[in-house]
Amino acid sequence: MAMWSPWRGCRRYSEGCKYCYIHKGDSKRGVDTSAIVRTDNFDAPVQRKKSGEYKIKSGQTVFLCFQADFLIEEADEWRAECWAMMQERSDLNFLFLTKRIDRFAACIPADWGDGYDNVTVGCTVENQHRVDERLSIFADLPIKHKDIICQPLIEAVDIEWH
Ligand code: SF4
Fold first, then answer.
1. Largest Cα–Cα distance in the chain?
2. What pTM, to 2 d.p., does this model score?
3. Which atom of ligand 1 lies nearest, measured to the CA of 23?
4. CA 90 → CA 18, 21, 34, 45, 85, distances in Å?
5. Which of 9, 26, 31, 41 could anchor a disulfide with 36, C-beta 3.0 to 4.6 Å?
6. What pLDDT digit, counting tens, does each position of 77-88 carry?
7. CA-CA distance, 120 to 111, in Å (whole number)?
8. Residue 68 Cα to ligand 1 middle (Å)
9. Are 159 and 133 contacting, i.e. CB atoms less than 8 angstroms apart?
10. Is 149 in the pocket of ligand 1 (CB under 6 A)?
11. Domain annotation covers residue 94
């Protein structure tokens, strides 16, 4: 398992964001979460040791953007490089979660096709309204591996009909 945070920071987007652990942690440390900035580890998947080997060993799951939302607008200009790194590291499995699944179709690269084999997308939902809104979009998207993440769950939801 490895973490990859190419950028950090986020803006609240929907009801569940009230309980965002990133905002909570940042406020304790006096960090402005609304500042969305690239990190020093932007290119973590393709960083190499002096020996020439990749620093992230083959075969791992890489948790992508767990301190942000991979599909946030402010990162639009950076995302293409990330897709390219995921392609280069076809020996790793990448997982990201998003509350902005409505932006997915506008954020994928030209060679996405019916999805990259090594990318799992988690659509997060927190209440029935977001279940109905997001899962109807998610169901039709070309993604090879899909997860539904009910987090933070702020009311009982029915996802069965989706
Ligand atoms: S979208 Fe996710 S990371 Fe961004 S504010 Fe909401 S809960 Fe936090």
1. 52
2. 0.96
3. 8
4. 35, 30, 32, 10, 9
5. 9
6. 999 999 999 999
7. 16
8. 7
9. no
10. no
11. yes
Residue 67 in domain: yes
What mean pLDDT comes out for the span 36-60?
97
Q: With b meaning 16 or more CB within 10 Å and e meaning fewer, what string describes 14-40?
A: bebbeebebbeebeeeeeebeebebee
Instruction: For a ligand 1 pocket test, name from 5, 15, 18, 20 the mutation site with the most ligand atoms within 8 angstroms of its C-beta.
Output: 20
Task: Confirm if 21 and 97 have CB atoms less than 8 A apart.
Answer: no
Give the residue numbers spanning the domain of 101. Answer: 2-47+54-120
Tell me, yes or no, whether 147 lies in a domain: no
Q: What is the pLDDT of residue 160?
A: 87
Query: Per-residue confidence at 115, pLDDT binned at 50, 70, 90?
Result: very high
Query: How many domains are contained in the chain?
Result: 1
Distances (CA, A) of 26 to 111, 112, 119: 36, 34, 28
Amino acid at 80: A
Query: Does residue 145 lie within any of the structural domains?
Result: no
H-run or E-run covering 32: none
The residue whose CA has the least distance to atom 8 of ligand 1 is 20
pLDDT by residue (tens digit) across 52-101?
A: 999 999 999 999 999 999 999 999 999 999 999 999 999 999 999 999 99
